[in-house]
Amino acid sequence: MINRNIVTVFIALVFLMPCVSAQVMKVGIVDMNRVFAEYYKTKNAEQDVNDQKELAKKELEGRNIRYKELIEKYQLLAKQIKDPAITVELRAQKQEEAKAIASEARSLEREKKEFADRRQRMLLTEVDRARKAIIEEIQDLVKATAKQRNYDIVFDKSGVGTRGIPFLLHSKDAVDFSEAIIEELNKDAPVPKPAE
């Protein structure tokens, strides 16, 4: 026995098919990965992050140099402490110096780790914030362009499913307007300075 609801839906679809096919759906396509990669603000944000990484690296190198100096001083003191020729008083003094240097080295080691972790978190937050702002700006332009060109649907052709299979495998009459989006986004890009 056939379910009455299935029959009703089937009959409704038979009668609606001519109406749906008479109305042509206008489909647009954008390659969001390409647009994102070619947008000048993306490149500027990447350069800012790279500059910050380089600055953090230099700061960490300074701390590493100080740490190595402390280790060398500690090793020299440890050697002097083992010298049987030094007096008991001098040995006690060297042990106190070694203890202070070891404490400073441990403190600096913790500081280096905290600094690296803090910088890493800060950079990740900055990258995430910049990425979201850029994507939002691109999406707003895509929506405005889609409305202006009267697209019913816009697909991102760079979208990939969980198994690595692209969402959009084929589209017969769709128009890829990625280039127009890139041109619009980059129209206000600063002109690069000539190399000296």
Structure characterization notes:
By secondary structure, the protein is mainly α. The chain is built from five helices and three strands; from the N terminus they run αβαααββα. The protein has helices at residues 4-22, 32-38, 40-82, 88-148, 178-185; strands spanning 27-30, 153-156, 175-176. Strands 2-1-3 form a three-stranded parallel beta sheet. It starts with a helix and ends in an 11-residue tail after the last helix.
Order of helices and strands: HEHHHEEH
Largest sheet strand order: 2-1-3
Biggest sheet descriptor: 3 strands, parallel
Overall pLDDT confidence? 84
Binned, the helix content reads over 70%
Give me some keywords for this one.
3 strands; 196 residues; mainly alpha; 3-stranded parallel beta sheet; single chain
At a glance:
This protein is mainly alpha-helical.
Write the layout of secondary structure elements.
Elements: H1 4-22, E1 27-30, H2 32-38, H3 40-82, H4 88-148, E2 153-156, E3 175-176, H5 178-185
Parallel strand pairs: 1-2, 1-3
